[in-house]
User: What shape does this take?
Amino acid sequence: MGSTTGTGTAPSTTELMEQVAAVGAAYFQDFAAAAARHGLNSSQAKALKAVLEPVPMRALAGRLGCDASNVTGIVDRLEALGLAHREAAAADRRVKIVTITDEGRAVLDRIRDDMTRARQAFDSLDTEQRTALSRLCQQVLPLLRP
Assistant: This one.
């Protein structure tokens, strides 16, 4: 097993997994707190991001990792706030497509801007570190997706 104690030994896969999980959890906590300051729970805010392009309800459920019945309540709330809307698909009127509204985009931008801890963390990286992190994410993410 590797160590991150400065001995030059690379961290083990388990250590990397734990570190990435910790970064992801901290990022999500910051995201959820920012969403709450804008009147949304984390599922609603995550749904806004997921519908930047029109998405069928069933696909949205998959993206959010929840049951289709849960998505109905999430979209109901977003519609009531004027942040998203749904309409029947042209090809199959039984399929409902969810799309973000201009106000929804504005709220999502404000949530991202309000993620102060995440912004501070990523702002602390220099250009070389940002480039390296981006490259690593681009390499690993496709392997993690179903």
Summary: Residues 13-37 form the longest helix (25 residues). The longest strand covers residues 84-88. The mean pLDDT is 93. Residues 24 and 56 are 27 Å apart (CA to CA).
